[in-house]
Each structure stands twice: as structure tokens, then as C-alpha cells.
Amino acid sequence: MSKSTIKVALIGNPNVGKTSVFNQLTGLNQQVGNYPGITVEKKQGASKLSDNVKAKIIDLPGTYSLNASSIDENVVIELLLNKKDEDFPDVAVVVTEVENLKRNLLLFTQIKDLEIPTILVINMADRMSLKGIEFDLPILERELKTKIALVSSRKKTGISELKSLILNYESLSTEPCLNASVIDPDYFNNLRRAFPNQLLYKLWLVITQDVNFLNLERNEIKNSFTKSHSDLKRLQQKETIKRYQFINDTLKIGQKIDASKATDLRAKLDRVLTHKVFGYLIFFGILMLIFQSIFDWSKIPMDFIDETFTSLSAYTKNHLPAGEFTNLLSEGIIPGISGIVIFIPQIAFLFLFISILEESGYMSRVVFLMDKIMRRFGLSGKSIVPLISGTACAIPAIMSARNIENWKERLITILVTPFTTCSARLPVYAILISLIIPEERVFGFLSLQGLTLMLLYLIGFGMAVLSATLLNYFLKLNCKSYFVIEMPSYKVPMFKNVALNVIEKTKAFVTGAGKIILALSIILWFLGSHGPTNNFKNADAIVLQELELSQNIASIEPELIENKISSYKLEHSYIGILGKAIEPAIRPLGYDWKIGIAVVSSFAAREVFVGTLATIYNVGNHSDEEVTIKNRMAAEINPVTGEKIFNFASGISLLLFYAFAMQCMSTIAIVKKETNSWKWPLIQFVFMSGFAYLTALIAYQILK
Ligand code: GDP
Questions:
Q1: Is 271 exposed, middle or buried (0-12, 13-18, 19+ CB in 10 A)?
Q2: In the beta sheet, which residues pair with residue 56?
Q3: pLDDT > 70 in the chain, percent
Q4: Is the pLDDT of residue 236 over 50?
Q5: 64 C-alpha vs ligand 1 centroid, how far in Å?
Q6: Where would I find the FeoB-type G domain in this sequence (predicted)?
Q7: Are 256 and 133 in contact (CB under 8 A)?
């Protein structure tokens, strides 16, 4: 009986165009989630095969073989070994590509030996004539005991043939390619005798891999058949050799390559793009261009979003009946949603550029270029992208760490990326620098203020590298890593791949981190607009009374009165009380309770600092805000010592605090999402903020 839904597992080496085939099969019918308990992304989609049959397609992580070396690869093995898994496929589709067929087939023969019905896709058929490659498909099908779909996901050819092969999967042969006992007859024959009802190759995988496979059974198998580690390795190598012998024999009769027809543009480009000097120059040129565009292009939509939400919030406040609910909406929920939506342009543009670089094949050259340098710090060549995109915003940057295969390197990258100076620190730096660093020029032309700003960027990057080194030393994670640098050929990016990638990443951010940002904004709103005491509740009356006592109230601008009331309220709100409560802890850093409130509310997002101080210092919006708040800050005097509050010592202390502290709940949310646990964001939060406190303390105590 035929099924109405056929479960398909899409498997293949990285860079063979598996995602493109998946996109062609499923279009927008995709869902992205995580495998339970781990961070590996789980992508699945639906594809209509005929009027009443559809395929549920699971896009498994790219893997070179079934000899797992990363959690991504474990996912593949675990699924294929566990028949009871609800996703266990009816049919496996192994994607390969014309140029690297030999290497790609290694994985294919392993999957075949698990005796699952298997279809072979040879993708990138459009490159065959360019590379002078021809296939004898009937011979290949006979030798590999499979059906082949010759596909070009770029030219959209062969997809319907693939669909009809999936539809008729029941007619596929499940005969293995390699008889496992040829690897070592004695060992394997014993194994077969001990477990006559089990598949030999499956037993072998259970013995060699650390996969979660029905624990009892696994221990039993392992106990009686474990060999020394080196013996197992030797057998694995033997297996690989046997497989390649088989593949070579097959391709000798089924494939023809006429190298004289191939072009060598690729070699020429590679020579320039991975050159010791030009390679870096070109890379940094491209980066400059990208960041300029991200800033320039996102500014317009970001301003638009900002204005729209501000007016929406004002509209709500003015048109809905006054009360708690209206306040929650206009001061909590709407700004909260705006705090999510405002990141969308940056995320979308960054991923637009990253996917173009990836799709074109250029990214692999950059990774190759950077790998040696980054590896010294426990990072991967691929960490360069997150570290640099962190200058715009840590959120898309941390998301872009996903394509680092090695979990330890990826984790380190995620943990250190927030040290890079993001754009939210910029307004804080700008105002503090203008307060404490004189407007002087060094050597007659270099602005001292500009140099300070650059220094802060360098400190951030240096700190990222330094903590990576420390983490590399202390993190004891067992991640087997043999890094294979993949050098795919250059290609014009496929629009569909780029577009789907941008949509998927943006969606992941909005639905993942977005929820947490919204929830935290509402909590912060509540804490800032509610207070436990009568002082808070009767703020209006108290302030008016105080003012009346001191001067003629009619002579004071109404706006100033409003501001006085809201600053009084803030002082007696929960956040205000918190600010005062932490005063003893922050006084040694040179801050008073008002700065304390700004620092505390900055833990929601750094850019709140200036705004909060503006509210506290009673600054109205009627004049040029930047100048006014700056003047107000410059004029703040410590009532006890008579000194300026924002002096060189406290300013430097604040700058260092903002450089190092983890003050961004969106980042915490995204780290939680990407690492799938609260452990890492908490460690990151404590370490970064603790370090920030310490350096700020030392700086102030030395400089004061
Ligand atoms: P994955 O790593 O296996 O998921 O591969 P992707 O789907 O991301 O594709 C890797 C690269 O191959 C991208 O640059 C694609 O544009 C390109 N690509 C995918 N399919 C084809 C194809 O049929 N022909 C050509 N010429 N390029 C392709």
C-alpha cells in the first residue's frame, strides 16, 4: 500500500548544493527548528509529489561521512540508525555534484550499506559541459545499485524526475554497495555470529561512533567487540580504502572527463583572492563596503520604523482612555516591539551580503585566509565574520556563527563576539568622550577625541581575542575536529537561495529573540513606572508642593514641572529604588545613584543610557537635545565634594564599563537561543559584567 506522506532524508557533503535542491523541492514550505537538546538546526519542508502524495523532506546537516566528528554529523547517524525515530526516512536522497563525485560517493556507499532505499542525485549538471564531464547513467545505476537523478538546481532541471523517483521509492534496491566483512573477515564474521539479526554495517557504526543508540543494546555490542582505539581507527581506514577502490572502479566505466575542455578561471581567481597581501586587502575592502552599506542602507528603514513606532505610541497615549492598559501599550509593548522590529533591516542586509559572499564561493577563500591566524586564539577562520559584523550589532553576528562546524569554536565565537564595539555603544561613547576628552589635535591633524574612539574599538576587539584564548584554554569540550577547508568553485549567487536565507534568518530572530525582548521590555516598563511607596503614588502633589514652597509656580514652564514630576517618580519607582540600593556598590567606580539608574536600565540596551540620563536630569525635548543633555551632564556637581560628576576619572571608568559589560538583553536572548541553554548567556553575563566592574573600579581608583 502506498503512503500519502513519504519521509525523505536529504543527505550530502557540504557545498554540493543540498540546500538548493531542498529549496527547489519545497519552496517556501519550510520550517526551521532545533534538534531536541542540541543546537543543530533542523530544517524540514513539504513537497507535493502527486495529487494525493506528498513528501516530508528533512534536510540533514552537511556531512562528509558517517564517521562522525561533529554534533552535526552525529545527528545524521543517529537518525539513520534508529528505526523507531519518528523521522526515520522511507527513502534517503544523497546529493552529490558533478565535479566532486568521487569524494561525494563515499558517503553514498555508506548510506547504501545501511540498506535504506537510496536515490543518488548528481547536482550541478549545468557545469558538465564546462568541465568536460560525461556520465553513463545506466552503468552508474547498475554498479551503484540505485536510481540516479541528474539535476541542476540552478537551471531547475531534473527536479521533476527526482520527485517521481521519490514517489516510486518502493521499487528501489536496498542491496548494499560494500560487503562489510571484506574490511576484516575474522572480526566481522564473529560480529555477525554474535548478532545474527542485526545489520552488520549498523553494528560496526555503533561500535565506532559515540551515538545515542538504544543504550542497552549498544553497551552489549560494545563490551564484547571493543578493540583498542588504534585498532578501530585502522579498521576505519581500511573501510575508507575499500570504499574508494569500489568508487574508482565504478567511475572508471561510468564517467568520462576530458580535462582539456575545462577552463581554469578558478585557479587564477584563487591565486589573487588567497594571496598573502592582496587577499587581505581585497577582503578588508569588501568588508568596508559592506559595513558602509549596512549603515547607510539600514538607516532609512530604521529611522522610518523608529518614527512610526514613536508616533504609534503617542497616538495610543492620546487616543485611548488614560489608564494602566494604555500605559502598558504605549510605554511597554509598542516600544518593546519596536525594539525588535528595528533590528530587522540590519539583520536582513547583513545576511543578504553574507549569503551572497557564501553563495559565490568567496567566503571559503576568506575562511582559508583567516584560519591560521584565528586558530591561534581558539577560534576558527569562520569566526572572522561574526567578530566583524559585531561592530554593527551582536545579534546578527552571533547568528552568523552558525556555520562554524566545530561546537567549541562556535561557542567561543558566540561568547566573545559581544566584546566587539557595536553601534549601540556609539552614542554612549560619543557623549562621554565629548565630555572628558579635550577637543585637541595631535600632530596638528589627528583629533584626540577620534583617537579615543578608535582606541575603544581596538580595546573591544583585543578583549574578544584575549577571552577567546582564555576560553580555549579552560573549556574542556570534547569536540573532535578535523577541519576540511572546502574550496567550491565560483558561481553567480542564486537569487532563491539568497532570498530564502535572508527570510529564514530574519524570521528566526523575530520569533526567537523577539519574544524574550518583548517580555523583558514589559518587565522593565513595569519596574520603571510603578513604585511601592506613597512617594511614588503622590508624586504630583509632593513635587508641586515643594515647588510652591521654593518659588512662584506660575513662573515655571509647565514642561519643566512635568519633567520634575517624572524624575521624582523615577527616583521612587522600583528601578529608582534599585539604583539607590546599588549606590554603595557603584560609588567606588565614581558614579552617583542617577548614573546608577542609567547603568541599570542600560542592561536592557546600552543606548538607553543617554535617554535615561536625559529623563533624570529633567531635560525637556524643546531644545537641541544633544547639547542640552551634554551641558547638563557637564554641570552635574557632587554635593559632597563639590567636584564635577563627569570628570576624567569617572568618565574613563564609565567608558570601560560600557566597553566590557554585557548590557543588551537582546544579545542574552539570542545567545540563549543559539546555545539552547541559559548556562552560557549567564556565564557570559557574569564574566563580562564582572570584568567591566573590575576594570572600571581600577581605572577610577587610579585616576581620581
Ligand atoms: P549546500 O552546502 O550543499 O547546502 O550547498 P548550497 O545549496 O548552499 O550550494 C552551494 C553552492 O552551489 C551555491 O553557491 C549554489 O549557488 C551553488 N549551486 C547549487 N546548485 C547548483 C547547480 O545546480 N548548478 C550550479 N552551477 N551551482 C549550484
A1: exposed
A2: 7, 46
A3: 87
A4: yes
A5: 16
A6: 5-172
A7: yes
- The closest residue, in CA terms, to atom 14 on ligand 1 is 359
The answer to pTM > 0.70 is no
Most confident range (mean pLDDT) of 338-347, 515-524, 593-602 is 593-602
The predicted model gives 97-109 an average pLDDT of 92
Give the ligand 1 atom nearest the CA of 12.
3
Residue 290 near residue 392, CB atoms below 8 Å: no
Of 329, 325, 306, 309, whose CA–CA distance to 607 is shortest?
A: 306
Q: CB within 8 A of 62, min separation 6: which ones?
A: 12, 13, 14, 15, 16, 18, 72
Nearest CA to ligand 1 atom 13: 359
Question: For 393-408, what is the mean pLDDT?
Answer: 82
Please give the Cα distance from 636 to 630 (Å, whole number): 10
Instruction: For residues 614 and 616, give the distance between their C-alpha atoms in angstroms, rounded to a whole number.
Output: 6
The domain segmentation of the chain, as residue ranges, is 5-261, 278-474, 507-703
147 touches 141 (CB < 8 A): yes
In angstroms, what is the span from residue 474 Cα to ligand 1's centroid? Answer: 38
Q: How far is the CA of 637 from the centre of ligand 1 (A)?
A: 63
CA 448 from centre of chain: 36
Name 46's bridge partners.
56
Give residue 15 CA to ligand 1 midpoint distance, Å: 6
Please state the φ and ψ torsions of residue 291, each to the nearest 5 degrees. Answer: -70, -35
**Which ligand 1 atom is the nearest neighbour of the CA of 14?**
2
* pLDDT for position 171: 93
Query: Any idea what the Cα angle at residue 630 is, between residues 314 and 341, rounded to 5°?
Result: 35
Contacts of 560 (CB under 8 A, 6+ apart): 618, 620
Q: 70 pLDDT band (50/70/90 cuts)? A: low
Long-range Cβ contacts of 622-631 (<8 Å, 24+ apart) = 622/559, 626/431, 629/431, 630/431, 630/434, 630/435
| Total residue count of the chain as it appears in this document | 704
Identify which of 491, 495, 502 to mutate to test ligand 1's pocket (most ligand atoms within 8 A of the CB): 491
Nearest to 290 by CA among 348, 343, 354, 341: 354
Q: What angle (nearest 5°) sits at the alpha carbon of residue 41, between those of residues 417 and 222?
A: 110
Which CATH number applies to 5-261: 3.30.450.30, 3.30.450.20, 3.40.50.300, 1.10.760.10?
3.40.50.300
Amino acid (1-letter code) at residue 145: K
Residue 405 in contact with ligand 1 by CB distance below 6 A:
no
Q: Please give the pLDDT value at position 266.
A: 77
Q: Is 364 in the pocket of ligand 1 (CB under 6 A)?
A: no
Pocket test for ligand 1, best of 15, 20, 360 (most atoms within 8 A of CB): 20
In whole angstroms, give the CA distance from residue 566 to residue 556.
16
- Please state, in angstroms and rounded to a whole number, the distance separating the CA atoms of residues 232 and 207: 9
CA of 166 to the centre of ligand 1 (A): 21
Distance 360 CA to ligand 1 centre (A): 9
Residue 491 Cβ inside 6 Å of ligand 1? The answer reads yes
Taking each helix axis from N to C end, the angle separating 495-529 and 574-581, rounded to the nearest 10 degrees, works out to 80
Q: Which atom, in ligand 1's list, is nearest to the CA of 22?
A: 7
Q: What is the DSSP letter of 625?
A: H
Q: Does residue 20's CB lie within 6 angstroms of at least one atom of ligand 1?
A: yes
d(CA 666, CA 397): 12
**Which CA distances in Å does 476 have to 277, 384, 409, 466, 473?**
36, 23, 12, 17, 8
Strand partners, 33: 42
Going from the Cα of 79 to the center of ligand 1, the distance in angstroms, rounded, reads 25
Q: Which amino acid is at 167?
A: L
Instruction: Check if the beta carbon of residue 399 is closer than 8 Å to that of residue 417.
Output: no
